[in-house]
Structures are given as structure tokens and as C-alpha cells.
Amino acid sequence: MLEAEGLLSDAMRKRPDAWALFDATAAQQFLLETKTLLDAKAYQEAMRMTRSQFNLLVADGTITPTAANANVKTIWDPMAGAILIDKLLKGAVLLRQAQHSWCHITKAATRLKVSPGALINAIIDGRLTAVGNHADFDGYAAIYVDYEAVQALFDTDCPPAMSLERFAKSVGINQPSRLKRLVGNKHTTATRMQNPKTKAEQDYITDEDAANFHEKFFKPRTMSLHFEKSWQKISAEMRLRSICVYSPDGEDYGSIYLRSDIPTDL
Predict the structure, then answer these.
(1) Within a 10 A sphere around the Cβ of 172, how many other Cβ atoms?
(2) Which pLDDT band, with edges at 50, 70 and 90, does 225 fall under?
(3) Phi-psi region for residue 263, left (φ > 0), alpha (ψ -120 to 50) or beta?
(4) 228: Cα within 13 Å, side-chain hemisphere
(5) Is the pTM for the entire model greater than 0.85?
(6) Concatenated DSSP letters for the chain?
(7) Residue 139 pLDDT > 90, yes or no?
(8) pLDDT (tens digit, 9 = 90+) per residue, 70-89?
(9) What's the rounded mean pLDDT across residues 60-68?
(10) Among candidates 83, 92, 90, 65, which has minimal Cα distance to 149?
(11) pLDDT over 70 (residue 69)
(12) How far apart are CA 140 and CA 47, in angstroms?
């Protein structure tokens, strides 16, 4: 690592490690920022990923070595990997088991013939919100996505809008009937369109409808991303402030909250 930073002279590089000298003042900032690095195998084990999953993420630049120019194998930063995984799982739905169309992020990418990095970027920038945290696994192995939501985002053959069922799943409404009731009672908008397969008229959520929903409501995941806090911390604070779910006239719409009810200093 010292070599990679240019802190060892040519003469010092020829010495045994124990006898190599370097300028302490010039290296001060580097030493403060020095991280414990791992070799590829240890990094994969720490992140709970397979060798093939690791290779795919390296190939598309999702994870990069910290000391690429050093003549050593310990060049992978586990802290950077942990930060990435935390970003991907922030506000994710807890999955006791992978039912319906939930599958691991790598499997979803493989089925659609896109790189895992494309899905990761979509999660980070908010385009893909149907993310699950599988309770049986840790690290990268725990990151699941809803394949139908991924397909709607990346498959150009899909309709130009989301079905109510798919949108409900993407925002964490476990029972689509709640979203149907929310639309039917005029609390949020939907657009009547023809189903391209059945030719029947049905309600869809367009980009404009989705924007209207998110402008009015918070879901646990979107709130977690907005405030950059875990849902556990947010929900504890909301209980202290007696903030309740959106339930006009006693109707059950699940865990959705009016944005206007949520204080900005949460």
C-alpha cells in the first residue's frame, strides 16, 4: 500500500519490509485513512457472495480495488462493501421466505440478461424500490428483488405502465386490494388502459400516477430513504410522536403515511 501511494523510494522498495523507511510527515494523512484490506476470497466470504457474483460485480465496476497498483493481493475494502450492502437494504421489505416473484438480485439480472450492476444502480437511484431483505441470509446473499418490478423496469416488451398489483408490491403494500381500495376511494390516481395481452380495460399506475402517490404518501422504505435512517429508528420516533398510518373513515390501507403528517425533523 505504501508503494501504491508512492511513499517508498526505489531504494527502500528493495529493502525487507521491516527495514523500509518512509517520511512520516508525508505519510500522515495516508496512515490516518489506511483501511484493513482483504484478499478476494476473504472479501467474498465477508460480503456473503460467491466467486461468480464477485466476478460479475468487479467486471461491471460496481466494486473496485482500493490499492489497484500495489503488488499485493489484499486490495479489497470490506468497509466499502458493507456500506454498499447497507444502501441496497435500507428500507427493504423483510422476507421470511422468497414467495411469488421474489428472487436474488443476481438471478433477476441473469434472467433479464442485464448486469447486476444495472439493478444495483436502479436501487440506489430510486428507480427500483421492490427490494427484499431475506431473513435467512446476511450480506449480499440477503438482497432480493421482485422480478416483476425488475422486468417492468428493464423489459421493453412490458406495458408502459405498472399494474396495481405490481405497483403495490414495489412500494411495500403487501395486499394489492388495499391499493385498489385507495384508488377506488379517490385517495390516489390511476389511469384506465387496455391490457395488451387480455385486451381488457383495467387500472394502471403511470409515471404521473406514481409521482402523485409519492408526493402525497410515505411508505416505510421511501421514508427510510428520504430521512437516511433505518425504519426501526423512524418507527420508534413516530410512536413517540403518536403519528399513525393513513386511515380515513377507519379504512385499512396498510402502512402508508401522509407526507403532511410527517415532521421534517424526524
Answers:
(1) 20
(2) confident
(3) beta
(4) 3
(5) no
(6) -TTTTT-S-HHHHTS-GGG----TTTTHHHHHH----B-HHHHHHHHT--HHHHHHHHHTTSS--SSTTSSSS--B-HHHHHHHHHHHHTTPEEESS--TTEEEHHHHHHHHT--HHHHHHHHHTTS---EEEETT--GGGGEEEEHHHHHHHH-TTS-SSEEHHHHHHHTT-S-HHHHHHHHHTTSS--EEEE-TTT--EEEEE-HHHHHHHHHHEE-HHHHHHHHTS-HHHHHHHHHHTT-----GGG----S-EEGGGS-TT-
(7) yes
(8) 566 778 888 889 999 999 99
(9) 82
(10) 92
(11) no
(12) 6
Question: How confident is the model over 143-159, as pLDDT tens digits?
Answer: 999 998 898 888 765 66
Grid cell of 75 as nine digits: 486490495
